[in-house]
C-alpha cells in the first residue's frame, strides 16, 4: 500500500471537517510495514523520496498514532501499517501567549489566572501548555536532551530549533539544591523546562 491509497480507503473520514478521525477507537488487523519514515527534521520520506505534497502529509498525520509498544502506525478502520519515526513525528514551529481571564473565588472576588502559552505544530495542532500538557526533556537520536510536548494519540512534538532558541531568549533559571540550573518559563501555573545545566557547567 502507498500513502495515497490510505487516503482513498478512508474517503471522507480523513478529509472532512476539522475534527480528527477517531483513530484511537479503530482496532483493525495489522497489515505489515510501509516504507515510510518521518525524519527528525520533519520530512516525510516514502521509499527514500520526500513526499512533496503538503496536503498528503497533513492528511496522513491525522491517521497516525503510537502503539503501547512504542511503534508508530497509520490506521484506518480496515487495516494498520507500521511506519518509522526517527525522533518525534511532529515539530512545534510557533508559539503565542494567551492571557487568561480572572476567575471568581468563593468570596465572589476575581482572582487572576496564570497565562498560558500555546504551541503550534507543523501539522497545525494547537497545544496549550497547561495541566498534563507540559514540556519534558527527552533524548534525541543525536544524544541531546531537548524538550518535547504531547500532542495526541500518544504522539509528541519536538521543539523546532528556531522556536527553541526563541523561547530560550526569555527563559528563567531556577537553581537546584545540587547547584545545577534548570531553564524554562511559566505556563498554566507550571514551570515548562527547556534545558538543564549540571553544576560543573554553571559559570561562577
From TrEMBL:
Signal peptide: none annotated. It holds the Pfam family DUF1285_N. Coiled coil: none annotated. Residues 21-87, 115-191 form the DUF1285 domain. InterPro entries: DUF1285, DUF1285_beta_roll_sf, DUF1285_C, DUF1285_N. This is DUF1285 domain-containing protein. It comes from Cobetia amphilecti.
